[in-house]
Design a protein that fits this description.
The complex is a heterodimer of chains A (161) and B (171).
Chain A lengths: L1 H21 L2 E5 L2 E5 L16 E2 L5 E6 L2 E14 L5 E6 L4 E2 L2 E3 L5 E2 L5 E9 L3 E11 L8 E13 L2
Antiparallel strand pairs in A: 1-4, 3-11, 4-11, 5-10, 5-12, 6-9, 6-11, 7-11, 8-10
Chain B lengths: L1 H22 L1 E12 L2 E6 L21 E13 L6 E7 L6 E7 L8 E2 L3 E2 L7 E7 L2 E14 L13 E7 L2
Antiparallel strand pairs in B: 2-3, 3-9, 4-8, 4-10, 5-7, 5-9, 6-8
Classes of the chains: A mainly beta (161), B mainly beta (171).
């Protein structure tokens, strides 16, 4: 019995320490608000609206912490009030800083209603922060009725090791 | 001692479970909001040519009508679901001895419905020239003016009146 207790006493700190490492977390800072009005007409009265809009190159800043080896990020959107003509894209514009590696996601990809791989990395018990994201909206035209259209982009990070 | 062992066992199991829960995934979101403003933009290409009323071919007749179709109108409009817009025209002062008519050509699609030729029978009064305008952009839509002599008056030259075109809610 005493031997068992000693083993448990040895295992407990290891498991506790391991728990801190494995609790992978993601933080996403920033939202994108775009206003489209008459100043966005291609050539004044009689013309259609410019169809494509881009956010600032750092409209989203992602921090990922406490990774445990390989990790991967997937994205999807959930519409609150979105127009069917709109297409939303995202790309990663910086590697951020921190240990390990990061790859993928540097070209625009469309965000759909189901999770899709975005980018991935590898780092053991370390953080990677200040990964910049840029968004792009396509499909804007005068055919879209006035209103406020909203969607949420969900970023899910997971250990893949 | 047995109690201590049980406590330790419970602690190990607890932290193991916590690891399982925390180790899997984490999700955050950001919000994208697009504010799509109402747009009602209208432009005309310029002033029509000079309408010169000449002597009739047959003595005793009134001079013939004169027309001009050298200008056009452009508009871009979007409206809330269930609403439409219209193009109205208004002249500031009537010409002496002349009735001025105008036509805005029929636009395509959701560009609206042309009312055909309309006469400015009163000054500072809006007349509907295109109605039921939806979400559209219409360009180079011809405006035709027609001057109809209704009475012989003393000659006058280069008399200008202003026609104001407006894109407004169709209520």
């Amino acid at each position: 019995m005493r031997k068992g207790i000693r083993l448990l006493l040895l295992a407990l700190p290891l498991l506790c320490c391991g728990g801190v490492c494995w609790a992978i977390t993601i933080t996403v800072t920033g939202n994108w608000a775009e206003t489209i009005d008459a100043s966005d007409l291609q050539a004044g009265a009689g013309s259609d609206l410019i169809s494509t809009y881009e956010s600032a190159s750092n409209v989203g800043i992602v921090d990922i912490s406490s990774t445990a080896g390989n990790w991967a990020l997937v994205i999807k959107k959930t519409d609150t009030n979105w127009h069917g003509n709109f297409h939303l894209y995202v790309k990663r514009t910086s590697d951020g800083s921190g240990s390990g590696t990061i790859s993928g996601g540097t070209a625009y990809q469309e965000i759909t209603d189901t999770d899709q791989p975005f980018f991935r990395g590898s780092s053991d018990c370390f953080d990677r922060s200040n990964i910049n994201l840029q968004l792009k909206l396509e499909g804007v035209s005068i055919q879209v009725p006035p209103g406020t259209y909203t969607t949420k982009i969900y970023y899910t990070v997971s250990d893949s090791s | 001692m047995k109690i201590l062992a049980k406590l330790l066992l419970f602690a190990v199991l607890f932290f193991s479970l916590v690891q399982v829960v925390l180790a899997e995934t984490d999700t955050k979101y950001q919000t994208v909001s697009i504010t799509f403003s109402e747009i009602a933009e209208l432009a005309v290409s310029g002033d029509p040519g000079l309408l010169t009323i000449e002597a009739p071919l047959v003595p005793g007749d009134l001079p013939e009508d004169e027309s001009d179709a050298s200008t056009h109108m452009d508009w871009t409009s979007n409206v809330a679901v269930g609403q439409t817009r219209k193009v109205t025209g208004q002249i500031d002062v009537l010409f002496s001895g002349i009735d001025l008519h105008a036509t805005v050509a029929a636009p395509t699609g959701a560009g609206g419905t042309s009312a055909g030729e309309k006469e400015f029978t009163a000054a500072t009064t809006d007349y509907d020239f295109v109605t039921t305008i939806g979400n559209c952009n219409i360009s180079a839509n011809t405006i035709t003016y027609r001057a109809e002599v209704t009475a012989m008056v003393a000659p006058y030259t280069n008399t200008q009146q202003t026609v104001t075109w407006t894109l407004t809610d169709d209520v």
